[in-house]
């Protein structure tokens, strides 16, 4: 995680692909992000912005790792995806330079749905952020695919 955090610091720009439901058309927009260290280097803060149907959207993801246990907690706020609260996600490191997080959100009148975020550095100049909507039965559907470069 330390390697991932240290290597991801800075400003990045790329493309966000968004699917509102399986089989729907892809909405594509520019995605700008800044990754900063905080809390004496213990946390990473990812601030970002993107567009949906001509309207600016913003988000924030705070990553707080427990290096000893190989686990990580995160808090996510997004003006489009999580507009009325903070989603708490938990997870770990699935391989070097990959973080896998899982949270949930209410979907009344039924049970909560899951939200999975996978962050990785597939190349020194690339960050991938992939999000999945997870049904109560555990079926995953691609919701967001972001790729940014320095």
Structure description:
The chain has 150 residues and is mainly beta. Helix content is 5%, strand content 69%. It has one helix spanning 2-8, and strands at residues 10-18, 27-38, 43-52, 55-66, 71-78, 82-95, 98-105, 113-123, 126-134, 140-149. A 10-stranded antiparallel beta barrel has the order 1-2-3-4-5-6-7-8-9-10. A hairpin with a 5-residue loop joins β9 and β10 (140-149). The chain is globular and about 40 Å long. The two termini are 19 Å apart. The model has no long low-confidence stretch (mean pLDDT 93).
Amino- and carboxy-terminal Cα gap: 19 Å
User: If you compute it from the alpha carbons, what radius of gyration comes out, rounded to the nearest whole angstrom?
Assistant: 15 Å
Helix content: under 10%
Query: Which class do the helix and strand fractions yield?
Result: mainly beta
Please list the strands of the largest sheet in the order they lie side by side. Answer: 1-2-3-4-5-6-7-8-9-10
Stretches where pLDDT is under 50 for at least 5 consecutive residues are: none
SSE string, helices as H and strands as E: HEEEEEEEEEE
Number of helices: 1
Mean pLDDT equals 93
> How would a textbook summarize the main sheet?
10 strands, antiparallel, barrel
Q: Strand percentage, roughly? A: over 45%
Overall geometric form:
globular
Number of separate strands: 10
């Amino acid at each position: 995680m330390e390697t991932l955090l240290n290597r991801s610091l800075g400003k990045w720009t790329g493309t966000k692909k968004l699917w509102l439901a399986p089989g729907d058309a892809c909405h594509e927009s520019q995605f700008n992000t800044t990754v900063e260290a905080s809390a004496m280097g213990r946390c990473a803060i990812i601030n970002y912005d993107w567009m949906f149907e001509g309207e600016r959207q913003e988000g924030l993801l705070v990553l707080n790792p427990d290096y000893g246990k190989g686990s990580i907690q995160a808090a996510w706020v997004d003006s489009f995806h999580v507009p009325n609260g903070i989603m708490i996600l938990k997870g770990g490191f699935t391989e070097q330079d990959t973080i896998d997080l899982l949270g949930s959100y209410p979907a009344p009148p039924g049970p909560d749905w899951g939200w999975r975020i996978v962050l990785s550095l597939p190349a020194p100049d690339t960050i991938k952020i992939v999000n999945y909507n997870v049904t109560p039965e555990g079926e995953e559907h691609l919701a967001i695919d972001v790729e940014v470069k320095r």
